[in-house]
Amino acid sequence: MSNSDISRRNIFQILGAAPAAAALASAAEDTAKPAHAPYQRKVFNDHQWRTVHVLCDLIVPADEKSGSATQAGVPEFIDDWLDFRKQQDGNEDFAAQILGGLMWLDLESKRLFQTDFASSTVANQKQILDRIAWPARAAAADHAGVAFFNKFRDLTVSGFFSSKMGVADLPYLGNRAVAEWKGADPKVWAIIEERMKNGYKGLGGEVKPMV
Amino acid sequence: MAQVKATPKTYDVVIVGSGAGGGIAAHVLALSGAKICMLEAGDWYDCTKQSAMFQWPYNAPHRAAGSKEKPFGYFDATLQGGWEVPGEPYTNAPGTDFKWWRGRMLGGRTNHYGRISLRMGPYDFKPYSRDGKGFDWPISYDDLAPYYDKAEELIGVFGTHEGLENTPDGKFQPAPAPRAYEKLFKVASDKLNIPCIPSRLSILTQPLNGRPACHYCGQCGRACGVNANFNSPGVHIFPAMKTGNLEVRANAMVREVLAGPDGMARGVSYIDKKTRQEVTVNARIVVLAASCCETARIMLNSKSSQFPNGIANSSGLVGRYIMDTVGSDVSGYVPILEDLPPRNEDGVGGMHMYMPWWLYKEQKAGKMPFARGYHIEIGGGRGLPEAGQFGGSNYLLGGGYGVELKQNLRKIYGANVYMSGRGEMIPNDDSYCDIDPNVVDQWGIPVLRFHFKFSQDEILQAKHMQETFQQVIETMGGKVTGKAGAEENWGISRGGEIIHEVGATKMGDDPKTSVLNQYSQAWDCKNLFITDAAPFVSNADKNPTLSITALGWRTSEYIADQVKKRNLHV
After folding, report:
1. Would the N or C end of chain A have less CB density within 10 A of its end CB?
2. Residues A139, A71: one domain?
3. CA A67 from centroid of its chain's CA atoms
4. Which chain A residues are Cβ-neighbours of B61 within 8 angstroms?
5. Minimal Cα–Cα distance from B120 to chain A, Å?
6. What range defines the domain where residue A88 resides?
7. At the fourth CATH level, which superfamily is domain B9-52+71-81+102-159+199-216+225-314+499-570?
8. Residues B35, B203: Cα–Cα separation, whole Å
9. pTM (2 decimals)?
10. CB distance A27–B55 less than 8 Å?
11. CA A184 to chain centre
């Protein structure tokens, strides 16, 4: 860590402003409590809800570092987000893209495997996703599925990585008081310098050495 | 109890508005002993009690996403403001698409703004003399420099001494060290001969006047719970109230400035939003600081037999020459920032490095296709995840799902950067506001109608931004992920979108061609002053708030001096 972290408990000493910091810390703690009431669905029906759960966990499954999208509450996030967009946009266009896309999955699944998407085997589900998850190599006939999946993937990964579980997974290490700001960690900067000097082959492409 | 006919109280000064301009006037005048009534159209706000500092998007509605009600996200400090305020419309003339931000709360926009605090330079006061466009100010840099000094020492600004052309250094606190991606920006900028220097923000890196230094949570936009950044209530208004000379009334929506038969202002009338009653405040001096366009609106709506076209508007120039800042953005993905050891990159709530305008010599030599310049603001890093995190990841990763996608997303976290140009707009005859004759707001006050047009100078500046930023990102070994071309007018912002409206009651040397004199005193009404951005004659690429503060200080000292010399009937 380049910057020392401070727990909320001793922020008072650092900031030297006990009353203000106390009010803030307690306010932050209040909202840090998990919501108690079970989530009330606003958009998805029972079948869509089941499909959304299956699809979310295909996109963000559990691995050795963190849990899955459904464990992080992503279906609830998506349901709420569709409702939010309806209110903000004054129409149901965005929700229609998602609900229509779920229907596209079912139609394809029934056509190929005689069962809806959520009830298919994982192998069969993946067979359909493999057709729409990489836009550049998708068949033109599958464009509706591709457009839907781009949106649904965005919702799922945004919902997952902005959840408490996702924040810890990344990890995002801020949103806290830091006693002394030191700027870029020399260890991190050394890696960047090495890559500048020797070039770097990354996910986002190959970088030639910077002269 | 028998009715007593009380003489209504007359204040020395009534100040309309509590943002940067109203705040500095209240601060300077209350400390000089004036009895002041300040009117704020929005609610009371105290960031030490109401800031959302340290809260998490996953505990907020819709992961703290922006909405029509809260354009900058759920935790943004703005209470009832935005480009749309319920019940307080404005209109656009045909062909205009202007967005008018209002910050309806104590302290106005100073609660959430970016705290970028740049001095205008010597050239910026005499632009007409340099290139024949726009107007010169009636003052020079040397006239305002002492007030920049005082303003920086009061609000607290960090920065470094660089000695660059037309980029004056100030009374700075130490600047925070750059983040890793900002150091990379500097490497690329150096290669391209673009200066990349520590930014200048009104955020404390050392304690000042009982305010603690920043604790680097990066959330200045939520308002700081401990006043470590500049905001008008915490720095100007609450200390001024301690003198006993300043009374502040919230939810007071000013309708007009009242004028006496002698043509002098005698106070203002406002609507108390809680009771919907009209209330009059009598004062010997009226200071308008309601924000550039709102100030023009109040003046245009202040009609009387002495002032048939609105108060102090014999020139017909009230509302004319409004300007915003020219904005255009480019985003990019920088592979060598992938998959780095996790660090907290929050820092202060804003950039630690920026690029001031650098092509003065080329411009002077006639080698540039547009007049005036811009500075570059940069961003990136491992930011607080909220709604929209990793949106459009398929453009970078080609798509995918499953464990591989999850692993890839972890690697690309922190490797996105952006550059935003913030440039000078030259005032023009097509950009102004007037009163819409057919529309009133819910308080019965006639509303503004906007007319707005960028000229080729601004559009070509946006083009230059696009080309330059793409070059910088490519020099970093990055891929441009968001850009705009000719068909999108180079991504130039809409008028009002950058929220730097200035102008509308320009100062000058001649009552025929200006509304105010060099002290922001109305030519036609000598006890009427303006301390927001309305007196601005030009809109250099130096964000307005520091100049509002310095000009407001100068005006307030002038008021105090004129009162002392008995030139103002007080």
Report:
1. C
2. yes
3. 12
4. 84
5. 28
6. 46-169
7. FAD/NAD(P)-binding domain (3.50.50.60)
8. 30
9. 0.94
10. yes
11. 27
